[in-house]
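Support request, please re-run this one:
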Amino acid sequence: MNKIALIGAGQLGSRHLQGLAKSNVEISIEVVEPFDKSRDVAKQRYEEIESNQKISSINFFESIDELSDALDVVIIATNADVRSKIIKELFLKKQIKNLILEKVLFQTVKEYMEVETLLEETGAKCWVNHPRRMFPFYQSLKNEIKNCEQISYMVQGGAWGLGCNGLHFIDHLAFFSDDTALKIDNDFLHSHIYEAKRSNYVEFNGLLKGRIGNHIFTLYSDKEYAPVSLTVTTDTLTAFIDEANGYARIARKSNDWKWEESQQKIVYFQSELTNILIEQIITTASCDLPTYDEAMKLHIPFIQALLAHMESVDGQVLTLCPIT
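Re-run finished. Output below.
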């Protein structure tokens, strides 16, 4: 029996749990959530999914100590500020084969290095949950642009969480380009550090730009809400994408640059993806997500760029970037 553990069953974690409830492979589920309210919500959301004979059992715990000694896959869906501590405790007390981590991974560069060493010492495989790589629309788009010389990638909108979500888009370009050589320019971020919706965290607005290898990106977030759009341009096509409304407008060189519009499902919820991830890992020992090593090459420069901006605004040396 494949033993799957979920640590953190809050808003996102409970959606992972709904995905696990749809598993097509036989699994047992163990959930660690110390807060009663979050645990109750997770149980309720799990029960919303149709009963599945592939689930041999599900148990809810308050601590890592209560988990089985050996686990096939562990999903850690906690906030970034405690994630490193939880990973260290987990490997100290349990045997872990595979790990899926939520982003932003950690808030300090030191934590990235410590977890990298821990993964090397234990031999555990680890992936980071940047789910756009799993969306069929983007897998098809990547196939169309895989041989292009350069990609221009642009995100525009307002109040979409540049600190919290910027890495999702940077990873998206890394996915399209099969490259991780990231350089970031933070000169055009707003000279103000914003309070995030979650207490004790911060957010950023303005323009963040850079390159991954030969490919360029701009991420713009205004401080006031505006719908988010994504534009991907290469020498063979231009694609304008409105994910929220499932709308795409694409002009291709092969079609004399004539615009073609389509309405289709672009974004998939976590509750529609986690079962696929688990099946991929159990049956192939791999999955569509970036590995820890691939993700770290993007996360560290991103964290460093935001830290440098905070230092320029606050006038003090910082080592911790309070985003999640």
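The chain has two domains: 2-130+272-290, 136-267+302-310. DSSP finds eight helices and 16 strands in the chain.
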